């Protein structure tokens, strides 16, 4: 008896449906894609109980003829491609011809349509993949697809559906991601008879970015563009201070198709670089317009994954554009909009310290709202002047600037200074080593000692000189001169942990190690500084590659504008 057999069409269709349709939001995505491909200028979506009971998607697109209406629910029936070569030049959102067939197989489906220029429309009813009726009807031009009782005939799949609230949240996310890519189309989402989202047509994408990011964040997003090999890249970037512990606010589009691509996400994070704290993710929108022949979207039935013919080039270009777009600017605290304030709002600012007896500067930015009085003891900040006015709680350096109060975290600032100086010293092979008169004995675990022995060459480049002292002990004989005040009993444990994390490349390990060294060697919160020491620190900060953030991504500077201070004290309404 043969063990191998050909599956029945009924079973095969159900299996295929499971790959394309896994929850209500998958249905919504596929149906909206079809509406967009049909040239719709408006798409209305209605769901009930998260789409479990009802999903209805209506559009004013080109509609279908009676014959096309019957064909659209057949597997691999599509108007988007005709032959094999078309797969390598896809410009539509849909093309596989599987979505409607899969939806029809696992729901009670009704499609009504009227083709543009036609006098009558048609309605098709399908249940569990079986056609029940086809009728002439009167209706406006366009198409409406109604899906009821999703997975009613697949109890196992329906059993694993999430709560209506969770499914609604998923639909909202999918709907928003699609709408951001097509600002020239009016989208409306109604959930349980309540309008949840209404995206009017616009020629300004920022109006749509307000929905996922909020108005304050959207209006402060930085836009940057660039050209690469066969690709145009546009990015909208939230300042690093708005980073989140989840990557749920990364929106990526390839030829206006919303995708989830690890390579692009990694490139975005790489572009933000050390402006981000460990474990945090930026909020950003990235649009890639790629020559269709250079990207493959036929990777997965859900069409959410893509492959590029030149991934390395695209990765580097995305990172460069983001890094350049963010620049070295320092973020302000809350700034009221010009409309609400009724007066000039301070622009992002920068600082630049320089004194005759120092070779270092600090770069931050100021707006020229107010000049420091002539004759006061000031310090130049990017061709503007600020005045160091004191230290708060032994932790923050306070400066009077032309736009308001500038606050500098002294530990983060010194951490950045030490990090850059160590990086340069390592690159130039010029790390100055301070030999200890009395070598320090440090006890380690077996694991820590093994890591230390494996990474001894890298530690030597950093100016950390250790030798085996038998058992689980090592002798610390030399340390970088810059870190003479560090507590090496604690530092060595963190340094070893940084060197052990994952299978990172040498450059990444070096960054981790130097970040730990800089953190432990920097002045601490509570260290009282003289005015001269504060000015010297700020001067040195200006010479660093990224004066706005410490090596771990924490912000170095913040500003409270004069207008914000006036609001605090009710001097303005």
Account of the 3D structure:
Strand 17 (384-392) and strand 18 (396-400) form a beta hairpin. The protein folds into 3 domains: 9-199, Histidine kinase-like ATPase, C-terminal domain (Heat Shock Protein 90), CATH 3.30.565.10; 206-326, Ribosomal Protein S5, domain 2 (2-Layer Sandwich), CATH 3.30.230.10; 338-573, MutL, C-terminal domain, dimerisation subdomain (formyl-coa transferase, domain 3). Helix 1 (9-20) crosses helix 4 (99-105) and helix 2 packs parallel to helix 6 (164-181). It is α+β, with helices and mostly antiparallel strands and 573 residues long. It is built from 18 helices and 23 strands. Helices cover 32% and strands 24% of the residues. Mean pLDDT is 82; it is low at 330-383. It has an 8-stranded mixed beta sheet. The longest helix is centred in the N-terminal third of the chain and has 18 residues, at 164-181.
Q: How many strands, what sense, and barrel or not for the largest sheet?
A: 8 strands, mixed
Unreliable parts: 330-383
Strand order within the widest sheet?
5-4-3-6-2-1-7-8
Provide the number of structural domains: 3
The tally of beta strands, per DSSP, is 23
Overall average residue pLDDT: 82
- Looking at how many chains there are and whether they match, the oligomeric state comes to single chain
CATH domain fold name of the largest domain: formyl-coa transferase, domain 3
Number of helices: 18
Second CATH tier, the architecture of the largest domain: 2-Layer Sandwich
User: CATH homologous superfamily of the largest domain, by name?
Assistant: MutL, C-terminal domain, dimerisation subdomain
Q: What is the distance, rounded to the nearest whole angstrom, between the alpha carbons of the first and last residues? A: 87 Å
- The CATH class of the largest domain turns out to be Alpha Beta
Structural class: alpha+beta
* Content of β-strand: 15-25%
């Amino acid at each position: 008896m043969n063990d191998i057999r050909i599956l029945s069409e009924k079973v095969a269709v159900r299996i295929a449906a499971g790959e394309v349709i896994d929850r209500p939001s998958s249905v919504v995505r596929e149906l909206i894609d079809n509406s967009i491909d049909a040239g719709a200028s408006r798409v209305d979506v209605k769901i009930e109980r998260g789409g479990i009971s009802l999903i209805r998607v209506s559009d004013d697109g080109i509609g279908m003829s009676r014959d096309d209406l019957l064909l659209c629910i057949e597997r691999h029936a599509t108007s988007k491609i005709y032959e094999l070569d078309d797969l390598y030049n896809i410009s539509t959102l849909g093309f596989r011809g599987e979505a409607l067939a899969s939806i029809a197989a696992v729901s009670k489906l009704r499609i009504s349509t009227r083709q543009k220029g036609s006098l009558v429309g048609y309605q098709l009813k399908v249940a569990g993949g079986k056609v029940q009726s086809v009728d002439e009807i009167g209706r406006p031009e366009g198409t409406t697809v109604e899906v009821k009782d999703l997975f009613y005939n697949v109890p196992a799949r329906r059993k694993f559906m999430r709560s209506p609230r969770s499914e609604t949240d998923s639909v909202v996310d999918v709907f928003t991601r699609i709408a951001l890519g097509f600002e020239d189309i009016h989208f409306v989402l109604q959930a349980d008879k309540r309008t949840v989202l209404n995206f009017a047509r616009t020629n300004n994408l920022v109006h749509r970015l307000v929905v996922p990011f909020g108005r304050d964040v959207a209006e402060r997003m930085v836009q940057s563009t660039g050209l690469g090999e066969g690709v145009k890249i546009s990015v909208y970037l939230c300042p690093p201070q708005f980073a989140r512990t989840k990557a749920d606010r990364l929106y990526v589009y390839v030829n206006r198709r919303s995708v989830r691509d690890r390579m692009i996400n990694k490139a975005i994070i790489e572009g933000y670089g050390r402006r981000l704290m460990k474990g945090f993710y930026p909020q950003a929108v990235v649009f890639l317009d790629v020559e269709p022949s250079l990207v493959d979207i036929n990777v997965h039935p859900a069409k959410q994954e893509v492959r590029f013919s030149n991934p390395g080039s695209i990765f580097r270009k995305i990172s460069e554009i983001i890094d350049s777009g963010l620049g070295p600017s320092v973020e302000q605290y809350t700034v009221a909009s010009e409309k609400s304030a009724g007066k000039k709002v301070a622009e992002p600012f920068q600082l630049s310290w320089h004194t005759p007896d120092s070779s270092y500067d600090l770069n931050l930015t100021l707006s020229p709202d107010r000049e420091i009085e002539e004759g006061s003891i000031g310090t130049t900040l990017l061709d503007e002047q600020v005045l160091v006015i004191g230290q708060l709680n032994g932790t923050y350096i306070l400066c009077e600037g032309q736009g308001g109060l500038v606050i500098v975290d002294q530990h983060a600032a010194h951490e950045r200074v030490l990090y850059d100086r160590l990086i340069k010293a390592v690159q130039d092979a010029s790390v100055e080593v301070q030999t200890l008169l009395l070598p320090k004995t440090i006890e380690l675990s077996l694991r820590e000692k093994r890591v230390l022995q494996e990474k001894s060459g890298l530690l030597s480049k950093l100016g950390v000189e250790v030798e085996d002292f038998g058992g689980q002990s090592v002798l610390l004989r030399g340390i970088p001169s810059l870190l003479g005040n560090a507590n090496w009993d604690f530092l060595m444990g963190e340094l070893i942990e940084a060197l052990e994390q994952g299978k990172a490349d040498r450059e990444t390990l070096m960054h981790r190690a130097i970040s730990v060294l800089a953190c432990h060697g920097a002045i601490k919160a509570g260290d009282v500084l003289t005015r001269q020491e504060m000015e010297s620190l700020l001067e040195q900060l200006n010479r660093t590659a990224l004066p706005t953030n410490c090596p771990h991504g924490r912000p170095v500077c913040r500003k409270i504008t004069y207008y914000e201070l006036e609001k605090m004290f009710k001097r303005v309404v």
